[in-house]
Amino acid sequence: MTDFRVHVDISGGVGRLRWDEQVVDSDTLQRAVSLASDDAILAHDLRRLQVDLLASDRAARSAVHRCGFRLEGILRSAQETPSGELVDVLVYARLAVDPVYGAEGFSGVMNSVLPTKRVIGHAVFRNEAGEVLLTETVYKEDWELPGGVVERGETPRQGAEREVLEEIGLAVTFGQPALVDWMPPYLGWDDAVEYIFDGGVLPDDVAAALLPTDREIRALHWVPRGEFTRRVTALSARRLELVLDGYRGMTENGLPVT
Questions:
Q1: pLDDT (tens digit, 9 = 90+) per residue, 215-238?
Q2: Which of 4-13, 21-30, 37-46, 88-97 has the least mean pLDDT?
Q3: Nudix hydrolase domain location, by residue (predicted)?
Q4: Residue 79 CB contacts under 8 Å (≥ 6 apart), including other chains
């Protein structure tokens, strides 16, 4: 297969790899992509090298993985096959500054292609009457606990503390989570892992002074236990009941793991 060639189209410091459809073994494809990539980045001082692949092309995906290319995105149903099937196109890229070889290079590639999950941190606060604090957001009908999505580099505890401060202006320090719950896919969201912390009972003067401090929060509400099911999702209601009953541990879809 010595006539197999990988082409590089270059414009403004960015290169795009392409090759003609041709049956070659995986090792040949990997060597050709590696040589073309190293030469393009070094000889032409490229900052970025990109290649678009059909999601169904497992051999090509394996080859670019071994050459240090990281998955950056998915173009859904972007290309039609000769049989009329619509397939996803995967966008891979390798930057001149990316580690390519050794453990760090391998880990960087795997980090880009392996599944990831959202991590969420929420908190349960009660007032002296036993009511629970719920937030009413501007973008959905059901209410929820203060908190939100944990950012990259944050621990779940740090993320929950930051979100509580941003949403209701309350500076808190949490300890162990009350619940760690796996959430199934819902309303277009993928599955996620949620940490729920018990914020304890707030004094009446503190509870009464709380106001929304984030533009996504329309209002704050102190809700009696018997009204949870009218205000939150069934999943949230299950978890709230568990926390208030003193359950501590792991749950899946709001149900204790036995």
A1: 999 999 999 999 999 999 999 999
A2: 21-30
A3: 115-245
A4: 54, 86, 87, 89
Closest CA to 247 of 192, 201, 193, 181: 181
Which pairing describes strands 14-19 and 6-11: parallel, antiparallel, or unpaired?
Answer: antiparallel
Mean pLDDT, to the nearest integer, of 56-64?
A: 93
The domains found in the chain, sorted by start residue, are 6-113 (3.40.630.30), 118-256 (3.90.79.10)
pLDDT band, residue 2 (cuts 50/70/90): low
SS3 content of the chain, % helix, strand, coil (to 5): 30, 35, 35
Asked whether residue 251 carries a pLDDT value surpassing 90, the answer given is yes
d(CA 240, CA 224): 12
β-pairing, 48-54 with 14-19? parallel
Strands, E, within the chain: which ranges? 6-11, 14-19, 48-54, 70-80, 86-95, 118-126, 132-137, 147-149, 179-183, 192-201, 217-223, 249-252, 255-256
Quickly count: other Cβ atoms within 10 Å of residue 66's Cβ: 19
